[in-house]
């Protein structure tokens, strides 16, 4: 169909019909465009809603992690406070009624001038007590954190064998740990220069650094059952029971 015939057909259609057809087409076009805009807004709403849900989920996870960290912090604070309560306390020594530093008051414990050689100092270190144990009646009463004034007799290494050379020391003892409660084995053998840890050593370098240990009232009052076995007692001098042979019972 050529253009002339098409124009004739259009011209033959009444004007009212042409206006109606044009209006219907415009309405459908506007309706389709509005539906498309509505669908785009719905998609944007759904995307925003999912993003909000994900954000709320992340916030909940962070809140729980914060609660866990707060609980862990409280637990660490509690443990730190408990550790401070049982930390090694102060200890004061009084010799002959004069309150001075132990190093000054114990100057009379040095061996005589004739035994200043290395062998003499080695024997002096070997004669020192390995540790100082004090039996406490209040061991199980819950009062071990309170200071106690105790008098302890320690051997005087400057005296010869056969002479009474015990030195009486008055001590104010607090609840303490195991640090500086035993003499250093390397110090006993070679002196302070032989210990690689120096001042950082957890063991005592000399009797003046030795700290007394509060023991149970029944400490060393019963015989160790493992001492007489073939393998012996694995705890050694740290055993809380007596190490005596079969013929040494009193």
TrEMBL record:
Ranges of biased composition (kind: Basic and acidic residues): 96-108
Keyword DNA-binding: yes
Molecular function in Gene Ontology: DNA binding; mRNA binding; zinc ion binding
KW Zinc-finger (keyword) present: yes
InterPro entries xref list: ZFP36-like, Znf_CCCH, Znf_CCCH_sf
Domain spans labelled C3H1-type: 178-208, 218-246
Source species, domain of life: Eukaryota
Keywords: DNA-binding, Metal-binding, Repeat, Zinc, Zinc-finger
Positions of region (Disordered): 96-166
Chain intervals with Polar residues compositional bias: 124-134
Zinc finger (C3H1-type): 178-208, 218-246
PANTHER family found in the cross-reference section: CCCH ZINC FINGER/TIS11-RELATED, ZINC FINGER CCCH DOMAIN-CONTAINING PROTEIN 47
Protein name per Swiss-Prot or TrEMBL: Putative zinc finger CCCH domain-containing protein 21
Record lineage: Eukaryota, Viridiplantae, Streptophyta, Embryophyta, Tracheophyta
């Amino acid at each position: 169909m050529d253009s002339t015939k098409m124009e004739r057909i259009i011209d033959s259609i009444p004007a009212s019909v042409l206006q109606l057809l044009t209006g219907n087409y415009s309405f459908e076009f506007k309706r389709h465009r509005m539906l498309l805009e509505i669908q785009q807004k719905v998609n944007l709403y759904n995307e925003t809603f999912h993003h909000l849900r994900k954000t709320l989920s992340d916030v909940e996870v962070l809140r729980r992690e914060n609660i866990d960290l707060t609980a862990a912090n409280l637990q660490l604070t509690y443990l730190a406070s408990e550790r401070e309560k049982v930390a090694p306390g102060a200890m004061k020594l009084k010799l002959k009624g004069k309150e001075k530093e132990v190093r000054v008051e114990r100057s009379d414990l040095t061996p005589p001038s004739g035994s200043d050689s290395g062998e003499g100092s080695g024997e002096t270190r070997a004669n020192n007590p390995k540790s100082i144990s004090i039996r406490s009646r209040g061991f199980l009463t819950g009062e071990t954190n309170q200071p106690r004034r105790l008098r302890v007799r320690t051997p005087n290494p400057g005296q010869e064998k056969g002479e009474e050379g015990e030195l009486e020391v008055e001590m104010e003892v607090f609840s303490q740990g195991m640090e500086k409660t035993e003499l250093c084995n390397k110090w006993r053998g070679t002196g302070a220069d032989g210990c690689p840890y120096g001042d950082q050593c957890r063991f005592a370098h000399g009797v003046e650094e030795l700290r007394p240990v509060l023991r149970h009232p029944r400490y060393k009052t019963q015989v160790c059952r493992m001492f007489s076995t073939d393998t012996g007692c694995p705890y050694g001098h740290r055993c809380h029971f007596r190490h005596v042979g079969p013929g040494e019972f009193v």
